[in-house]
Amino acid sequence: MFDEDVVIVGSGFGGSVAALRLTEKGYRVRVFEAGRRFADEDFAKTSWDVRRYLWAPALRCFGVQRIHRLPHVMILAGAGVGGGSLNYANTLYEPGAAFFADPQWSSIRDWSAALAPHYATAKRMLGVVEHYPHDGPVERIMAGAAEDLGVGATFRRAPVGVWFGVPGERVADPFFGGEGPERTGCTLCGNCMVGCRVGAKNTLMKNYLALAERRGAVIEPLRTVTEVRELPNGGFSVTTRRSGSWFRRRPQTVTAREVVLAAGTWGTQQLLHRMKAAGALPHVSDAVGRLTRTNSEALDGAVAVRVPERVDLARGVAITTSFHVDDRTHVENVRYGPGSNLMGALATVLVPGDRALPGRLAALAASLLRRPARALRLASLRRWSERGIIALVMQTADNSLTLSLRRRFGRTRLTSAQGHGAPNPSHLPEAHRAARAIAARLEREGGVPAEARGSWPEVFGIPLTAHFLGGAVISGSPEEGVVDEYQRVWGHPGLHVVDGAAVPANPGVNPSLTITALAEHALSHWPRRGEPDARPAPGTTQGATPTARPPAET
After folding, report:
1. Residues designated catalytic
2. Closest by Cα among 193, 180, 214 to 66
């Protein structure tokens, strides 16, 4: 009696896993994605092509880069069929022991052991190369900065999801026995985060989603889900509208026996908060919005006053190396390719973060006035991506935000407050140390003056994060979180959260691999269509079933 067996909201790392695994198990699956579908040649050539790069549908910009703002953080996220994989940095680390030991979920089961086979499956599906295979000046600068900080032993090459092959050479699918799309060897152009026009990046359209469509999943792009409502006799209705439409068009509604929310942390939290307030999903836990994480993150870096003549900073994939400043602080280099200089507009002087706003503004003004000509050269966006190195800094620190709805100027929006644990940091002293060390090495390697850089949001006490997580976290009870260990929403049988919103702690590394492994774990426990469900009924004892093996179908 339902239009579909399962409707999936979103096509990122969680939604793509759900689409493939459920079609393999015989379910009729429809995926709604707010963003557009991209072929390789559809991506922007550089970040200045804002209509193809930025997501602002009301302005007819249907790109891959979303930007959201809350009082306590500015968020960079993805858009399009393939979600964050379209503009992420291909970086696929496993988190350390502190993540699995977080008390929010450690009592449920041994997550390190439970997820181990699913991490292996995720790595195979995403085509992980364990160590970036190329060397260059940025890699030497990062290794030198680690040595200067006394942590050289922690330096390593990043695991990345890229088909290197022969640069520029087109080959038949090398990952899935020819069942996937053709691929082209990486040319090291550096524009992974603008969208890979080469076809080398292992986006979700090259693996999970491509295979899901071959098995019958239907993906509808440019459909924004506006309502998920539980039906009186079971199942759900899902209402969508066309993304970015300037006119009020008739919404479309389909029904499904089960719904998977995988719209990314921002999108999934928006739906859960709004549907709970509207009475469409009235039993969603009051814990929704709690334990929202930013990965305790900062985006700082270093930039030279001009392009160094003897080093090429823009050649390579987006992230290639990392080191640990201390046992909880992880630093990675990030690059954009030549011409992609737009995000440099967020960079500015690195000001002391331990001062109040007037003190930070005074330090900014003093720096600009001390050497105005140099300040102008450093602030210039001309060839910015060829002059600098972004430092992405992440921590396993136990800090969080609590999100809730606030009505203002006649509109209801998400807002934030400090949550459990230490306050969500507005700056990271460890990030400033790393940025200065990278700047010193850049100046030495490049032979031109260089300076550590921060960001404009950080000046005003608002950190940047590319890894917005939590708010609908895994828990042992509805008082402690929103979903159970199988990522089923407490109080609403048939509703699931399978994306970054379920992640219960700061992983301290790029979370894409973890979101994928958690999704593989959750979907491995779903029964095949028409077969009995071996999972305990929602609300019963947790950890009652053995760890499911990863799928053998793909």
Report:
1. 467
2. 193
